[in-house]
Amino acid sequence: METPFYFPVVIRQLSDQLFQAHLLDLPETTRQQTSLEAALTAVKEALIQLISQRMRANQSLPIPAPPRGKERHWVALPLLLAAKAMLYQTMRQQGISKTALAKRLDHDEKEIRRLLDPAHPSKIARLEHALAVLGRQLIVAMPRQPSP
């Protein structure tokens, strides 16, 4: 199952100098800014915070809504956080604990906790290896941003 960690953004221009941006199905990410670029940046920061908080609280992660035709913008998680989120989500789907993954990798559990810590600067190669042990592959893609 492919899980892209990029989310379509709905933009509304509220006035000449006020833009509102939000992610579909995630109203808590709504942000208003004085420029389109600032609104996109603010909603991306809200997404990063939301994903990080849910991972720390052992909650499910949002699944990106499919574009519905009006979206012309999207925001993506930074690569490292997307890889950590993929590992986190895979472990939850497969019912694999940190201890069980540590045993499979022949690592200490604290190393797995660091791999799942959104703030820890883990190495992508370690995340790729952990995902491979769980039968998953990390693929980096660059979808084209639709033209206005």
Our count of helices gives 5
CATH fold name of the largest domain:
Double Stranded RNA Binding Domain
Mean pLDDT: 90
Kindly estimate the percentage of residues that lie in beta strands according to DSSP.
Answer: 15-25%
Helix content: 40-55%
Tally of strands: 4
Shape: elongated
Rg, Cα atoms, Å: 17 Å
Question: Mind summarizing the main beta sheet?
Answer: 4 strands, antiparallel
Indicate the CATH class of the largest domain.
Alpha Beta
Give the termini separation. 30 Å
How would you characterize the overall build of this protein?
There is one protein chain. This protein has 148 residues and is an alpha+beta fold. The chain has five helices and four strands. It has two domains: 6-76, 2-Layer Sandwich (Double Stranded RNA Binding Domain); 79-133. It has a four-stranded antiparallel β-sheet with strand order 3-2-1-4, with helices on one face. The longest helix has 21 residues, at 36-56. The radius of gyration is 17 Å and the shape is elongated. The model has no long low-confidence stretch (mean pLDDT 90).
Keywords:
elongated; 148 residues; alpha+beta; Double Stranded RNA Binding Domain; four-stranded antiparallel beta sheet; 19% strand
